[in-house]
Fold:
Amino acid sequence: MRKIPLLRQILTQGIFLLVSVLILIPIWGTIRLAFDGALIGRPTQFSFLPKEFSFAPFLKVLDKPYQSVQFEVLLKNSLIVSFGAAALALVLGASLAYAFARFRFPGQKTGLFILLLAALLPPIAFATPLYIILSLLKVRTTLFGLIIVYAAFAMPFAIWNLRAAFQAVPKEVEEAAYLDGAGHFKSFLLINLPIALPAISVTALIAFLMGYTEFAIGWLFVDKADNVTLSMATYALVYGQFSGAQPWSDLGALAIIMSVPVIVIFIIFQRTLMERMLFQET
Amino acid sequence: MTRFKTPLYILAIAFVVFAGWMVRARAVSMLSIDFDEDDYLRASQEYAHLIRTSDWSGFLETNYRPEHPPLAKIVMGLSLLSTPEEALTPDAATTAGPNSHLPRALLTPARTINAIFGTLTVFLLAIFDPLAGLLLATHTFTIKYVSQVMLEALPALTSLVTVLAYVQSKKGKARTNWLVASAVFLGLTAASKYLYCLVAVAILIDWFWDEKQKGNLRPFYTQALLWGIFSILVFFATDPYLWPAPIERLKESVLYHAGYSTGASEVKNADYPIWQPFVWVTMSPTQWHPGVFLVAPDFFITLFAIFGIRHLWKKQRVFAFWLAIAFLFLLVWPTKWPQYILMLTVPLSFSASQGIRQVWLNGMEWWKDRKSREKIKYNPRETRQAIPWLIPGLIAFTLLTLLPFIFQLAVSVTDFNRLSIRDGFQGGIWREFLGGITGQIAAIQPEFPFDSNKVQFTGLASYGPVFDFITGSGVLVFNIIWASVSIALQTTLGLGLALLLHQKGVRFGKFWQAIFILPWAIPELIGALLWLNIFVPDVGFLALAAQKYGAGFPFNFLIGWERTPNLWFFVLLIPAIWYGFPLIMLASSAGLKMIPTDVFEAAAIDGATIWETFRYITLPLLMPLLLPALIIRAIFAFNQFYLLWAFQYWKQQSSTLALLSYNLFNPSGPFNGQFSASAIVNIITVIILIGFVALFNRETRSKEELKNA
Structure:
């Protein structure tokens, strides 16, 4: 194939520019709010640039973004819940994933189907029964309760993807280990886990992000301000903002603080994240 | 018709006609009085009076509600001749509500004559296809509108005759006679209600298609022209109101509809979304007329009609055209009254009968082949080895995922709600569930919304009302349309950009790609917030910009989006596409890299244009690779929750099943914690997703085969 002619090059670049503008408009709108130090409540006039460039909103939300809860507490809650849920989902799911990847047994096909179905159900479908069960256990409003809930969301997805990761480990390597006298457990620990580690970490990352960005169901469960996660607080600010109680720049700043790390992760791992999120076999 | 001889066949038709007549007769006496019945009753009374007094010239000047031609009204007038003359039904504006004081003595004969036409339609369709006849006989919307004093029954019948006569003409024997017959009935259809003349378009397209394949279009033009002129003559002959001033009165009545659809206040107030006709064909008017209909198969008829459309196309193309054109028209036409769907319930039933047949045949084949399918041999040793790995994971999976779901099933057969939460927590759910399924506790049928403070076993009694709710309120249709439109637009944008990026020698490709994936990398909550800042009514950037730039601002049409369902849909689609297309772009890019470049080179040598290369090479090679990804994204679009949740702070126009389930469940939400209804919605979601996942598995398998080949 030859290189494309100049006219087509220009046309292509034009389309790219147009699409980029459409993508960036809402992002710019919020960045503009976040750096506007002159904003008291909502913006009352349309303008492309902040009236008074300032970091004040960032400093404010890094102190006490939501009610009287400190930013560190929110971040800590978020990290506990998301790490806890991801770890729980992966550790509990790993053996099942290995069984599905390495052995053939009756009911395997049906099991896989159920697994995939569970991974694709909307979270709310698990949340409602868990709400009742966790209320019964009196842990519904605690961070531990949230860990359980988010682990339940992430587990089918984690199992499905761990299975794909284990399957990608060449069988020959494992068989060599058997010949050397290793059992299944030993070869799982020493061969499969290390080889599949990159794929496993990406799965863990997604499971982590599920908890990190979830908020609606969190609000259904938690009613104490101390147990609120960062994304839940962000959403509380959304209501606060549009009912007029909260300056719009606060929320803009918090949104940026919350999403920048995620964006960096996505740009670095885009290809693998894409494959995992689309349930592709590797 | 050799099949006519089979007694079984005759018996089937007799049964269908009998059933159709019985449910219509029941509806005639039981249906409450509806909008417009007073108008058409008054019109019929006027005609009955003219006939009684032999005032034949009066026909030239009489046509109450002149926007509709008089034939159906005249025929209803004939039915009133045997009744004593009563005072004329008072004139009322089109905005008026139903007149519930209509005299039964007049209502019953007028409704009955319509029901007879309705039954005749069933009979004709049953001769053609008994199963389709049965479906039409039980279709509740059809029953409703052919058993009321409406104008639908007669044109629905004559339009079917028009098509059937045309189909007969294609068989070659006595072709001219059948064509004349179809033209006559088309004319009668036009003289009853214009809308039903859409069948003529279907016939003409089908006719054109046939002749084009034969290669000579000249006879088509002359014959079709004659056919059309003849039907117009019949139309004029049977519409006496037109005789004194044909052009003027015809223009007036046709223009009325154009004005009505865009100007009438009741059309504006109803403010149905574009896709409302789909809602009509998936729901049953059981809530409007409780106790009238014995069965409500409308949803399933439409479902099977979707399965059957391909076979309908193969078997009776003209019916497929009929269905498609009528749907297209209803989508485009701004007036969306439910009675309009009667112009397509005949081909819909026919398609559904094809669908049922296909499902049945496929099922039989699958059952017959069960032995020849190879059984996977499981190695008992391997199974034993798997057990220690399976057990810990299974316990965790069961506790966290399966158990909640079983719990959900238990909740769905009770009336568990926020008020009975205390009893539920003290074991009430299991008490009622176990007692209910073992038959120790009798099922009760409480009214929705449930408000008992003790959990009670309801059996499957709440499934029906909840299903009626999600079809009748349009949530299900909205959800399906939302997912399809969203995924289609995401794919267009994502695939388009991937193709552009894939061109050789594109500058700054990496840079652009990094920008394009930004929306995907932003958490959905933040993405929704970004767009909320723009679209929030009155105070968002959109409103501010409109203030600043005034009338020249090109996006002024979006102001007030939260108040109309169509704009609301459009505005919510923007963030959905913005958020969803990058993943499809990445998947397409990955897929494009797997296509060997030499096929493109070969195409270039053969002189293929860009479009040809895309249509015949790129797309067929890429689609199998991309389809599984698209299905997954369609599922996510179907389950879209956070975006709609964030936007529902303003007026909620519709929602996905996932959001509905959340709102039903939320103890401090709009439904006050209807836990069992929410559980049923979740179960319905699971059933729908099973279909999706089966599709995904099939496509993944074919993708693997392709990769290995």
